[in-house]
Amino acid sequence: MRQTLNEVTERIRERSAPTRKAYLQRVDQIINRERGADRMGCANVAHAFAAMPSNDKFKVVAEKAPHIGIVTAYNDMLSAHQPYETYPEIIRDEARKLGATVQVAGGVPAMCDGITQGEPGMELSLFSRDTIAMSTAVSLSHDVFDAALLLGVCDKIVPGLLIGALHFGHLPCVFVPAGPMSTGIDNTTKSKVREKYAQGLVGREELLASESAAYHGAGTCTFYGTANSNQMLMEAMGLHVPGAAFVHPHDGMRDLLTRESVRTVLSITKGQRFTPIGRMVDERVIVNAIVALLATGGSTNHLIHWVAVARAAGIIIDWSDFSKLSQNTPLLARVYPNGTADVNQFHAAGGAGFVIRELVDAGYMHGDVQSVVMGGLRDFGKQPVKSDDGGLIWVDLPATTPDDTIVRNTSKPFSESGGLRLLTGNLGRSVIKSSAVPEDRQIVEAPAIVFNGQEELLSAFERGELEKDFIAVVRFQGPRANGMPELHKLTPPLSVLQGKGYRVAIVTDGRMSGASGKVPAAIHLSPECLAGGAIGKIRTGDMIRLNAIVGTLNALVDDEEWQARTVATMSEAQRNNNGHGIGRELFGGMRKNVHSAEEGAVTWL
């Protein structure tokens, strides 16, 4: 793997050389300026610190104390972000003890895909990432900060904060998580109730009771979807206090970890260990994030998000890089939907630290990278514990996991290859979360049924028209068409059909979320239909072959006929529906300017 790791990294470095060089030149140019309070005019400085306590104002202006900006995704509607309400005061208190000052620089929006799933608001979801990035930029644009702490957890929030932070690459940055909620109803039981509801076997009351038992308190959802994959990747990139990802919000350790984030960011703000995020996040760090994603069967959404994150640092990656690394990365974790365990069980079995240690020691990750702590990435393979004096120390994890049904050593992986696969063929390029798909469903060949949206498929299911082998082709779901919403509501009915023995799959230019499950799903198909993609040539009845073993996706149509076909166009009614209501009008510019999914669905280039 070391050879593959180095080959992919070097290929990325060569491809990115011009853009990375230009990025670092911009970072260095800003680093070499005077600090904000010394550089700005007096009126600017007075405005910046007008509301600060006198002692803090004196520290930052006269004593030139380090000044930390907080960018927070706090709101008290979303369980994952509700704990952040008290963090600014904790951070201020710790900063004062360490001779520094703090201001909340700004807030960013944080929406929940679980709330908007299947609703019009979901069409804002993907674009909320770039909105968060821009909000981070607005927050830090006052340009008086020596470092930043970024508070966020969930799907688009962490990638958005990271993209924004990388556009302020001269600042040392530490990301501050809040942790997962406690274990409720297990994810397998929750999914079975959803399938029963889809079949009409239970009513809304039973479904709501089940969902409320699963989502019941503060913290992230406990399955290994995009939010918790975010936390794994931030550990692998060295941007957290080591081991901070999966500690419960109300665990006493969480307060210590939050305080430690202040100490950590100050340790890289001045002096020999000055480590601005733009220099730290290099090609090796991006590759480490990809490897961590693959080794844990993480969210497919990150094949979009981390392309955008890399681009924010002047680094260009594509799905071929993911695919090459996946073929040579062992699968070390089984966490729902890639298994039955939740993230709390994953954490108890060794979690992020165990996986990172195994990957670094076996040569699957670059261990010689910078991180926010002195020991580099190897410190992220340790576990934080309370010391006798009430602080934190980091200790080695056991050589073997207490539960090898959840986490394994590299010597005995669940699979020799990672959990994600690139699919190519005459339909374009797409990805599949192959680790969650049963072995006997890795290849599906069946006739297509074409749908122009998820509502059409759900209606056909309710009418009993889908009791057969088929591949659902759901088009006009790409970023240009309607913002690329997740189609997670299609999972229960398709799971029901698969459970009855039918061979089913889905092919779409949309997303199926970080919770992509046991039904084979070729997602993010690029180019999308509205951009002239071949998905628009498929007609109901065409035979489609999805082969996740060799990585192909093809319409089995005579080549001459295929070339002669025209791409379907979106109806005016559908176009209008996608562009109006629940704020969608405001995102029209993003839909027009967005790049493809494989280019990160970026709207700011």
Salient structural properties:
605 residues, 14 strands, 24 helices, alpha/beta, four-stranded parallel β-sheet, 2 domains, eight-stranded mixed β-sheet, Rossmann fold, Glucose Oxidase, domain 1, 13% strand
Report on this structure.
The protein has 24 helices and 14 strands. The strands form three sheets. The chain has an eight-stranded mixed beta sheet with strand order 7-8-12-11-10-9-13-14. Strands 2-1-3-4 form a four-stranded parallel beta sheet, with helices on both faces. α5 crosses α12 and α9 runs antiparallel to α10 (204-214). It is α/β, with parallel strands linked by helices and 605 residues long. Helices cover 39% and strands 13% of the residues. α19 (454-462) links the parallel β9 (443-451) and β10. The protein starts with a helix and ends in a 12-residue tail after the last helix. The longest helix is centred in the N-terminal third of the chain and has 30 residues, at 2-31. The mean pLDDT is 95. It has two domains: 2-33 and 65-182 and 217-396, 3-Layer(aba) Sandwich (Rossmann fold), CATH 3.40.50; 421-599, 3-Layer(bba) Sandwich (Glucose Oxidase, domain 1), CATH 3.50.30. It is globular, with a radius of gyration of 24 Å.
